[in-house]
Amino acid sequence: MKLTYYGHSCFSVNAGGKILLFDPFITGNELAKDINVESINADYILVSHGHFDHTLDVVTIANRTGAKVLGVWELYEHFTKAGLKNVHPINPGGQFSFDFGTVKSVSANHSSSFQDGTYAGVAAGFVIKTEDGNFYYSGDTALNLDMTLIPKWANLDFAILPIGDNLTMGTDDAVEAAKMIKVDKVLGVHYDTFGFIRIDKQQSIDKFRQSGIQLHLPAIGKTVDL
């Protein structure tokens, strides 16, 4: 599957004949200043939680592309009130089949609120199963034992995990997460965007390699095959 990284925790995956875009935060990310948000296509937009650095460009992209937006109930209500017509609610534990494959929403240990401080529901991750392969996006999360259940739902080809520490897992915990979910390929996200989540990228790559896991840290705007 082809994955394009747009910075922070935003990426798209071509799977099941559709473009799946996750947690769009581009216009507010100085590191993604060379990305034209108007050029980003999507058939589906999956939103892990309500924080601004995961939702900022959802409405803009959804309005332009007509993409269906997926998220927990509170996100469903929020985006519906924002004028989006093509929104689908899916809470942790829930599963739903779409024309590209199946999405299972799973728990993530993290806070979630909108920019005005109001409650945005629980944070979540997603297990995606398609005819092209399967993958897991954890969303913003701490390491947790619920991850040991992921391989019971899908044999994963790769995973997308946060590695920036401080607000989410850091590299050491992400390595343990990768072992729990039984993957040997990981795309690292949620790092370097802000001062308190800057990392030593080579050190992170080396730590994953020591456990037999390949950590991908593509440049913003680059596409990789996973």
Automatic annotation (TrEMBL):
Residues 7-190 form the Metallo-beta-lactamase domain. It comes from the Bacteria. InterPro entries: Metallo-B-lactamas, RibonucZ/Hydroxyglut_hydro, UPF0173_UPF0282_UlaG_hydrolase. It holds the Pfam family Lactamase_B_3. GO terms for molecular function: hydrolase activity. Keywords: Hydrolase. Gene3D superfamilies: Ribonuclease Z/Hydroxyacylglutathione hydrolase-like (3.60.15.10). This is Metal-dependent hydrolase. It comes from Dyadobacter subterraneus.
